[in-house]
Amino acid sequence: MGNDITITKASGSWTVRAGGAVLGETDAALVLSEGAYPPVIYFPRGDIAMAFLDASDKTSHCPHKGDASHYSVVTKSRTLKDAVWSYEDPKDAVAEIKGYMAFYDIDEIAVEQI
């Protein structure tokens, strides 16, 4: 894959929480490693409580992965703007992440192996 991207199945179970709520839990997470960046856990969309997410107008482009759609996380106390991304139609080299979502590493969101 270009830019030293590797995608592997994450071992064990993973959870993502925000604002005291569990947004998702899965045994089918993927780990995407890209160059010197920290690894990112991707959750299957079907394992995420989409009721907590609002689609955003924001998009971003990665020359190696394609165009990402963004979502905001709505908690009881606030909205975490553009805190989630997903590649709806990723490039062929990273096709495994289609249908998966990743969360930005911010204080209000916890992605943890359980």
UniProtKB/TrEMBL annotation:
Domain DUF427, chain residue ranges per copy: 15-105
Protein name listed in UniProt: DUF427 domain-containing protein
Source species: Sulfitobacter pacificus
